[in-house]
Amino acid sequence: MNADTRQIRLDRRSPAYWRVTFDHPPLNIFGPETVPELNAIVTAIETDPRLKVVVFDSAVEGFFLTHYNFLAPVEASTAIPPGPTGLQALPDMLVRISRAPVVSIASIRGRATGVGSELALASDMRFASREKAILSQWEVGAGLVPGGGPMARLPRLMGRGRALEVLLTADDIPGDLAERYGYVNRALPDAELDGFVDALAMRIASFDKQAIAETKHLVDIASLPPDAEIGLEWGAFMGALGRPAAQTRIKALMEHGFHKAGDVESRLGYYVGQVGGWVPPAL
Amino acid sequence: MNADTRQIRLDRRSPAYWRVTFDHPPLNIFGPETVPELNAIVTAIETDPRLKVVVFDSAVEGFFLTHYNFLAPVEASTAIPPGPTGLQALPDMLVRISRAPVVSIASIRGRATGVGSELALASDMRFASREKAILSQWEVGAGLVPGGGPMARLPRLMGRGRALEVLLTADDIPGDLAERYGYVNRALPDAELDGFVDALAMRIASFDKQAIAETKHLVDIASLPPDAEIGLEWGAFMGALGRPAAQTRIKALMEHGFHKAGDVESRLGYYVGQVGGWVPPAL
Amino acid sequence: MNADTRQIRLDRRSPAYWRVTFDHPPLNIFGPETVPELNAIVTAIETDPRLKVVVFDSAVEGFFLTHYNFLAPVEASTAIPPGPTGLQALPDMLVRISRAPVVSIASIRGRATGVGSELALASDMRFASREKAILSQWEVGAGLVPGGGPMARLPRLMGRGRALEVLLTADDIPGDLAERYGYVNRALPDAELDGFVDALAMRIASFDKQAIAETKHLVDIASLPPDAEIGLEWGAFMGALGRPAAQTRIKALMEHGFHKAGDVESRLGYYVGQVGGWVPPAL
């Protein structure tokens, strides 16, 4: 892979502590072309014998990691073979992050929307900038069904009621509300986020790998959704993508600047709340 | 059904957005006579092809919806045939609200006690007046076992410890504590509650029904208790109702004004805490 | 058992309301010698026909109940036969507290570390001193795996993300954070804790035992982890205890004052964060 076109950077701070940084300006959109990059990193995380903790963060102002790339041809996604879990590539990688014998931490500054929220939810812990983090599952607002696990994961994290609110209002959730709802472990003042996460990662990196892995595995038994539940979501997403309700809404969003730096991407929660009015009502 | 004796009003704000308003002054007590009314509404919610969101609220000052009617003869309850799920009528309707392909929102002002709390818990989301909402499962304080699902639903919403506190102290939970415990999604200043819920409902009503229904269905898989768990509760409630511990306590509450507008109904948490002292100790 | 060497005091405030007080100064360490004492109390809790509520608290300044006794020979632990559930003695007793037809309340002032946290988590409710409570699962920081249920219980109480943070950072959690995370029901001002818990216990003691027990049993169905999950943890703990990563770290902690009144025991979260630096890195 050519380093110049890479969307994700891997920084081995020490043998035990890696940083994975999304660096695909201006929006950190995740598309089929991102899949092999992330897959190589997930495989390394799963298999490195010395690694204990990995932090996911972003180098792009305003965006942790955002929605799927809807400008890529659908075939670019459907042509990707299933992963080792038997799930399709995106849910496969997310499930593997959750199961890896390594602690994963999402350090969220800017938007974690769609895939960005799903990657954060697949991680073991989430810390957010109180001022600059926005989490959201915007999909239902665009006639879609989320595809990377949030229906399975959010109710187990925050209870059914708040999960349904997040998913069915499809609205932007700022850092402090994300903390109150349990969407993130904690929201920290932006100036403190990096230091807090770094200290936490270095602390864990000083611990014994086998103790970490066995403890995490026992938590997995108590808390991970079955892979099959995650798999259902990807199918529902692909099914919805082909329907007129989604096509019409995505087209309307595109006409207003979707996939370009600007107001639609920055305030996606607001715009999906408008898009039902721009288009002929579905019924 | 005669409009003049109806306890529940249905207001179709739009084809996609309905309001269901409990209007049975002075207390919004729920009894066997309320069952067919609510059943007709639940059936309409389940089957209307254009409906996307329904808000439950109250027209009665001080009461969202309160406990079961203990003045009605028991036979009036036991004579009601089971519903389509095979459960008894009340749990049947509650289970069907949770499973309907429509978003249900409880807008809670005043007491949501007993059946009122159970209907709120069966709804997809709950928003409460910070100043005027009180939630409670008062039953254990009267020698009863709750019958409409809270033992199945509360631990999945707020964890076992807080669920046991709510159920076994049988005490009144004001809006702010209800939010901290996750009993409601949020408690809002009373002056903002109606506007907030209305905006949220109109937003969801602008979305695509199939996207809503499929997303909710996937959350159901992750979060709904099995019907059988809910069914056990109704049996436990009916069993407890026949025992002396409950009969004595309900009689004592009646002597102090239970089922009449006044202090016992308004501060039921306080009164069930006294009733064990009014009667000979059970042991 | 000789009253003079007892580590746990049982005070029958009334036939329906007991206090169980850990009184093993200076640290309330829990060891194999504590097992028969606690077992006798758990058996009494399970079988007394009049008991409705039991409060666990401490008579030792600074410590609710802390970690296992690592000075006792391992054989003293492995020689204890399994309990009636078929689990090893400590998890057996904890599981039985959770299942007893009696309400258990942990009133936490001082450290609830390791076994102390596990006993609190096995109890039905937890209330903490805002100023003086510290909860922690310190084990991973010492190369161990917790053995008394927290991997099974914490994710069900606070969600996977916060549970993994508590377990994998192995750090001290003060009262207010414990409340925000749902580790405890509530953190109360220290001056109010005793009055609050006593009033709550007396309230429950006035209720009907059968109503309490049936309601709790239905919550158990919805919320208790399977015994087998708890059982796995004890095996993982014993396995980890024999490995060099744990032995080296425990030895280093001992050299700095572990198991003696002083800074290591009072700030165990800090010290386990240092111990990986005192010893040769495991990898």
What does this protein look like?
Three copies of one chain form a homotrimer. Chain A is an alpha/beta fold. Chain A contains 13 helices and eight strands. The first copy, chain A, has helices at residues 35-47, 74-78, 89-99, 115-122, 150-158, 160-169, 175-181, 190-205, 209-223, 227-241, 244-255, 263-266, 268-278; strands at 8-14, 17-22, 53-58, 63-65, 103-113, 125-136, 173-174, 186-188. In chain A, strands 1, 2, 3, 4, 5, 6, 7 and 8 form an eight-stranded mixed β-sheet that branches. In chain A, strand 5 (103-113), helix 4 (115-122) and strand 6 (125-136) form a beta-alpha-beta unit. The longest helix of chain A has 16 residues, at 190-205. Chain A is globular. The model of chain A has no long low-confidence stretch (mean pLDDT 96). Chains in contact: A-B, A-C, B-C. Chains A and C meet through helix 5, helix 8 and helix 9 of A and helix 5, helix 6, helix 10, helix 11 and helix 13 of C.
Helix/strand layout:
Three copies of one chain form a homotrimer.
Chain A (H helix, E strand, L loop, with lengths): L7 E7 L2 E6 L12 H13 L5 E6 L4 E3 L8 H5 L10 H11 L3 E11 L1 H8 L2 E12 L13 H9 L1 H10 L3 E2 H7 L4 E3 L1 H16 L3 H15 L3 H15 L2 H12 L7 H4 L1 H11 L5
Parallel strand pairs in A: 2-3, 3-5, 4-5, 5-6, 6-8
Antiparallel strand pairs in A: 1-2, 6-7
Helix pairs in contact in A: 1-3, 3-10, 5-6
